[in-house]
Amino acid sequence: MYKKCLVPLDGSELAECALNHVKNLVKEKTIGEVTILNVVKVDIPWTQVDERVIDLEALRKPLFAAARKYLADVESRLSSEGIPVKTEAIEGNRPGETIIDYAREKGMAMIVMATHGHTGFKKLLLGSVASRVLHESPVPVLLVRPESCHP
Question: pTM for this structure?
Answer without folding.
Answer: 0.86
